User: Which sequence fits this backbone?
């Protein structure tokens, strides 16, 4: 697999860039369970030394995405699907709480700001522009995390965000999924703008649960 990446990013370390690229490749299924992650070959592909690569792989091992066998090598875990499902279970809970908090704290001006993001998502969905739709999708979720006005919740959401970007990028290229996701985001916005905490939390949980099921099904 060839990696298209800017390894000289000024805002992220080489280790972090490699970590994110490897994680995405595993989560979207480019690297299947059991795949041997050859350090020498990966270092050559990334055009880096093995030191940041080893650090990135240690993080992936801690997250349960790869396993390392002494004197044999590192491999994509056979439990990747379980990891994705469990991470998204956590994500649905935390983002559901964020939506609940946002619904109780949001101001009229903030409702307008969130609506503007939703309108952009609607426009790009109708234009069948998956890249821009993905951008607005991510921004919509980020805004809800910000509107929760709780630093702990925000940090937890950011910590698991990278597990979602790869799969979301893949599923949003599906026209039917674009439409489903839009309807679900419209409902989330409606519940938050109505300042309905139960409705907002349930809408977010339902959205993440359904999209996770979709991801797991297309990866089988």
Assistant:
């Amino acid at each position: 697999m060839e990696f298209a990446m800017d390894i000289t990013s000024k805002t992220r370390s080489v280790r972090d860039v490699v970590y994110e690229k490897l994680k995405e490749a595993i989560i979207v299924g480019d690297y299947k369970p059991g795949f041997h992650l050859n350090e020498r070959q990966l270092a050559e592909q990334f055009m880096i030394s093995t030191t940041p690569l080893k650090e990135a792989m240690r993080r992936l091992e801690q997250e349960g995405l790869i396993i390392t066998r002494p004197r044999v090598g590192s491999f994509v875990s056979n439990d990747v699907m379980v990891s994705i499902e469990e991470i998204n279970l956590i994500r649905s809970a935390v983002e559901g709480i964020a939506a609940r908090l946002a619904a109780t704290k949001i101001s009229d001006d903030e409702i307008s700001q969130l609506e503007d993001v939703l309108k952009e998502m609607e426009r790009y969905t109708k234009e069948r522009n998956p890249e821009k739709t993905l951008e607005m999708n991510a921004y919509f979720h980020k805004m809800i995390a910000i509107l929760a006005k709780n630093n702990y919740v925000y940090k937890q959401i950011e910590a698991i965000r990278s597990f979602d970007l790869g799969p979301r990028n893949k599923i949003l290229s599906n026209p039917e999924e674009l439409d489903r996701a839009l309807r679900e985001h419209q409902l989330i916005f409606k519940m938050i703008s109505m300042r309905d905490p139960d409705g907002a939390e349930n809408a977010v949980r339902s959205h993440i649960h359904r999209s996770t099921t979709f991801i797991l099904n297309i990866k089988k």
Summary: The mean pLDDT is 88.
